[in-house]
Model the fold of this input.
Amino acid sequence: MRSLIEYLGCGGYYFRSGHEVGDYRVSKFLDLTDKVIPFFLKYPILGVKAEDFKNFCVVAALIKDNKHLTKQGLEQIQKIKLGTNKGRFLKCIS
Done:
């Protein structure tokens, strides 16, 4: 993780309380759009997480265009969120 943080020049790794695992977090939106997203477009994520990344990119584009400030845009983001991670699995088995 240190190498990724150094390479991208942003973010940090934060351990979860009481666990040996943690999360990579980026707090600046421009770091996400200018560094993190281009990195994963160049080096694609494989497997089911690739779909989550596609959703993440759609949401980032909506935010970049200030669509999240409208009711319709916020509803679109919420709908996308329902389809990520466990939500996608639940849709597949229903």
Summary: The CA atoms of residues 37 and 92 lie 27 Å apart. The longest strand covers residues 12-15. The helical segments are 2-8, 29-42, 49-64, 71-82, 86-93.
